[in-house]
């Protein structure tokens, strides 16, 4: 144990976090609760949901994961951000490629018309790939929501370090359809394994 009360074992620092949690029976209700929480002053980074990677079943429903320290989580993404991201996947690369072609045509002239033809073709191809990706990501999100609803509901965790906000946070969660809204303390570890991408190979060519 350190003087600050943190538990250091195997190179990891253990600590505790206070948070509120509730279960929702629809994505619309969860989003409404998030909107109200953010209007109250919470930040998007204070919110997390159950990750699609969590394996759910009748013996392991979402409600059994409310207070589990090791439940797989994902950052909450607003509906607007998700829509904008899918739109960018669909049209963004093609738009950039098309703008690049227009700039070349305006600054260099007719000498690069064959190149422009290839670039425009690439824009259409890239846009098609983006459309396919947006469909895939959209379906994955919908399937994750369906599975969670079929196995108990949608979980929303709210980082709540200051107990003075507890009553208001719980009120917002409950008023927007949250079930079993309560505050708990979770135990976390911080170490090399928790650093994002710490084990990833940044350059796939280095594997060759």
UniProtKB/TrEMBL annotation:
Transmembrane segments: 86-105, 111-133
Keywords from the named record: Membrane, Transmembrane, Transmembrane helix
Domain of life per record: Bacteria
Identification of the protein by name: DUF1269 domain-containing protein
Lineage: Bacteria, Pseudomonadati, Pseudomonadota, Alphaproteobacteria, Hyphomicrobiales
């Amino acid at each position: 144990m350190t003087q600050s009360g943190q538990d250091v074992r195997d190179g990891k620092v253990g600590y505790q976090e206070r948070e509120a949690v509730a279960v929702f029976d629809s994505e619309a209700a969860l989003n409404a609760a998030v909107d109200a929480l953010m209007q109250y002053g919470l930040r998007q980074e204070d919110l997390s949901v159950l990750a699609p990677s969590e394996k759910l079943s009748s013996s392991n429903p979402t409600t059994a994961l409310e207070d589990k320290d090791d439940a797989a989580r994902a950052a909450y993404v607003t509906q607007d951000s998700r829509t904008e991201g899918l739109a960018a996947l669909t049209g963004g690369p093609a738009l950039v490629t098309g703008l690049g072609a227009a700039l070349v045509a305006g600054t260099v002239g007719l000498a690069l018309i064959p190149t422009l033809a290839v670039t425009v073709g690439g824009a259409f191809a890239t846009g098609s790939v983006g459309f396919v990706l947006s469909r895939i990501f959209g379906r994955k999100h919908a399937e994750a929501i369906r599975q969670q609803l079929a196995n108990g509901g949608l979980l929303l965790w709210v980082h709540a370090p200051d107990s003075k906000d507890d009553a208001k946070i719980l009120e917002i969660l409950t008023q927007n359809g949250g079930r079993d809204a309560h505050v708990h303390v979770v135990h976390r570890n911080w170490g090399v394994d928790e650093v994002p991408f710490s084990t990833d190979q940044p350059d796939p060519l280095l594997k060759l």
